[in-house]
Amino acid sequence: xxxxxxxxTLAAPLALALxxxxxxxxxxxxxxxxxxxxxxxxxxxxxxxHSLVAWSVNHLGFNDYFGLFGDVSAKLxxxxxxxxxAKVTATIPVSKVLTANAGLNAHLLRPGTEGKKPxxxxxxxxxxxxxxxxxxxGADGTSATIAGNLxxxxxTTPVSIAARFIGAGKGWGKETVGFEGTTTLKRSDFGVNGAxxxxxxxVKLNITIAFEKTA
Length: 215
Fold this sequence. Notes:
This protein is mainly β. The protein has two helices and ten strands. The protein has an eight-stranded antiparallel barrel with strand order 1-4-5-6-7-8-9-10.
């Protein structure tokens, strides 16, 4: 026998589901979509609030340690009909390097002692810069290899970035296109030699940038 209480117990979830249906239907769509057809030719500038360069090094062979560079500024010239002609430049404020530990932050920017070179970047380091020299589109149409020159700690070295298209659309009133990229470099190539080899020479970079159209 179905009691009033049992009927209510069975009906309540159904009522909640029906009430939620209009809310689900009205949920706004995410403006950025992985659709290449949304990308338009023009000049773009990075959104510094949502563009980051993450780095990781191995610490003593035990685990990887992570940090970030924020406030990245970058410019992109892009034509989806001629991707190999794309050009990108970026500036990364090394002085704003961030880790999860205030002591390590200070060590990365600490001056050298007794006339020695700093272990890492030292105080008031110059911004790092990247300038592309070529873009080679991938066969899948959503990836590319970006070759260029990275200047860090006063040293310029060629690097290659594996880039991937994430999404495009109109966000916050501006045409936007987003990419992620990865590369690995040796910090000793740039004269950043502190704690070698206890802290790995290899540094992995993970880059995420949202470009907003300017013209």
